[in-house]
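Format is sequence with structure; example below:
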Amino acid sequence: MSMSQAWRTLVLAWGCGLALGALAQAADKPEVVCFESRKGASEITQHEIKPGLANVKCSPTTGAALWYGDPFEGTVPMGKMPQMDKIAEGRAWVKPRTAQLKLYAQCGVACHNGIIPKALPTSKHPTPIPTMEAMVPDVKDLQHGRGRIWCLDCHDAKKRNMFTDNFGDTISMDQPQLLCGKCHGDKLRDWRDGIHGKRIGEFASTGKKRWFTCPECHNPHNVQDGARNKGFIQIEPESPPQLPHGMANAKYELKPPIAH
């Protein structure tokens, strides 16, 4: 073996060693998953979108998302909706709810598939459903409506992976605000106008923002939870997150780190 071949072999072995070391270090590093507005409603896994810049920073105290490097990760355009036609195309983005629902596939395909088992109700007459109570404990003592409504006032009687409006038409679970708005019209109006709810994204440039939908903040089955009895479990305020390591100021926020 010539000197140059030996040198290349040594360099290659050294490079492979570094790569394997990096892979081993990455494998040993625990996965960080934090929730957004409500624990159990939408989780986001931390990863780097560029060297030294994470897609999200999680609170070491509560596990909540504190800061976003990319506020539009996993979102899609909300599209045109009733009473929201004045919103410019591409300004409103949402995270699809169906991807966050653990029982969505079972309700739509594995269990029912359009044919309701005999043991399950098909009318708006409230009936105990032990199977659902076991899978979703919050429905055993359904607080939504203070006893005036029940499951099939919101969920479609035949298509269990869809909601229903007051006229019997279905509503996608990716558009829960349309369901909530049939009773909470004033809140839908406020949400549409930016008075109610949470939005993140671009406030000083194009105005493109991610809109958080109703169940991302409120538990629809247990709405009376929380210290103020308002359906939102309060989280103790924390100090604002520090700048990412190596950054002396926040001028980087003037330009989004990810092109959209």
